[in-house]
Amino acid sequence: MSMSDLRYDLKAISEMIKPGSKVLDLGCGDGTLLEHLKITKNIIPYGIEISSEDIEKCIARGVPVFMSDIDKGLEDYKSNSFDYVILSQTLQVTKKPYKVLSEMLRVGKRCIISFPNFGYFSIRFFLLFIGRMPKVKILPFNWYDTPNIHHLTIKDFFIFCRKNKIRVLKKIYINFVIKRCLFIKVFPNLFAQHGIFMISK
């Protein structure tokens, strides 16, 4: 699988991973990222997934995967047992984000997180001028069928990290419309559609 076949945030995450690392992907889906990292970077892959359909796809890809609910914690894993723990596009759908993040930081030396930025300007305008819950490209769901239960912004995430003494080691801001713009770096909470962060204790 080539880099061009990966989802936009998975490409950025892949570039953060050092070869030969031990990697745990929480909510790994069909195992696409772990398979790619195994082939291109010779990592030791582990996945956790709750969907039986996606677990079957992981097995078909040769990706070791375990069925579990990450909201219940990672008690089966020792502290600092992984070089990287990944949570891509999943934080906003977890029931207990604080517990999930705490457990990630316990078992992983480095943690990588990606999520949609609910502070993006088009979402703000949608609420302000239309007066309804936004249904836009980065949030293509109706209020009654969305999997997103925690609507966080990039600013919210930074405040959370400061409050809990979490180090932000790397940050990447993504906007598909204005891909390279100084405004995204200066005002990410307003102009970034998605954020990707590497964090540690």
Strand content: 15-25%
The low-confidence parts are: none
Shape: globular
* Sequence of secondary-structure elements: HEHEHEEHEHHEHHE
Radius of gyration equals 17 Å
Number of helices: 8
By CATH, the topology is Rossmann fold
Q: Mean pLDDT across all residues, rounded?
A: 91
CATH architecture: 3-Layer(aba) Sandwich
Provide the CATH superfamily. Answer: Vaccinia Virus protein VP39
The CATH class assignment is Alpha Beta
Number of strands: 7
Q: Work out the oligomeric state of the chains in this entry.
A: single chain
Number of domains: 1
Strand line-up across the major sheet: 3-2-1-4-5-7-6
Question: What labels would you give this structure?
Answer:
single chain, 201 residues, alpha/beta, Rossmann fold, 7-stranded mixed β-sheet, globular
Q: Concise description?
A:
The protein has 201 residues and is an alpha/beta fold. Helix content is 34%, strand content 22%. It contains eight helices and seven strands.
